[in-house]
Amino acid sequence: MRVKRLEHFMGEGWQLRPAGGATGEAYVAEQGEQKIFIKRNSSPFLAVLSAEGIVPKLLWTKRLENGDVITAQRWVDGRELKSYEMHDNRVAALLSKIHQSKDLLDMFKRMGNRPLTPEAIRLNIIKKTEHLHIQDPYVNEALTWLSNHTPYYSEDNYVVCHADVNHNNWIHNDINNLFLIDWDGAQVADPALDLAPLLYEYIPRDDWSSWLQTYGVSMDANLMKRMQWYMVAQCVENILWYWQRHEYHDITKWSDLLSEILHEAGHHKKDK
């Protein structure tokens, strides 16, 4: 029914099909040779993302009578990056561009969004854990560690973080452009919120320093502690997510990474 309403809104000759994604609000619209990407209630700062070349070009934005906002973007003939391609220097360069964008940060702040602090993340995890009635030694150990090792990073240096830098959200097109899509979960936060999962999940440890150099920072004890903290938090969030779905193989994967990081962090206790 929703597709039919959108087809009516688009006008005669347009055909829509779901484009996938977690929200179910994205569609591919086609009319003859024309092909565009349609989304309902997409990120309100899509125009800035488009202007900076971070996402495919925004063609138009229209508001429906019920208040929904429909956006149309140029269709990109491309593909998602493979896991091993996250090592590409362009990934580091684009993430750096995003984190350094003052226009993105200013617009996000004008929307009234509050910064996502470590304490807010920790309290949210505790709330989820209590809601699921989980008594798991890995989770309990991690929650204690998160409470005792909250990293310091001034909110004055927070940036707009994508907050889901999975390789599936990086699109490479046929003319060698790279885009980062799906901005629905973006947050103003410590850049380590994005750096931690990207490095831990995709970049060999021996290459971290060179990857970060391309990104524009040097590895130091403070950055390492912050990345450890955010990755421990993400491991716990993933364990809770898979716990709800009884997908125990994936729980094991994240529990193993969690143990590895906590063991590693034990060797940095003297760094304060």
From TrEMBL:
SUPFAM superfamilies (alphabetical): Protein kinase-like (PK-like) (SSF56112)
Statement: the UniProt record of this protein carries the keyword Lyase: no
InterPro entries with a match to the protein in the record: Aminoglycoside_PTrfase, CcrZ_PhaseVar_Mediator, Kinase-like_dom_sf
Domain spans labelled Aminoglycoside phosphotransferase: 45-217
Keywords assigned: Transferase
Pfam families, A to Z: APH (PF01636)
UniProt KW rRNA-binding keyword: no
GO terms, molecular function: transferase activity
PANTHER family: CELL CYCLE REGULATOR CCRZ (PTHR40086:SF1), PHOSPHOTRANSFERASE YTMP-RELATED (PTHR40086)
Listed name of the protein: Phosphotransferase
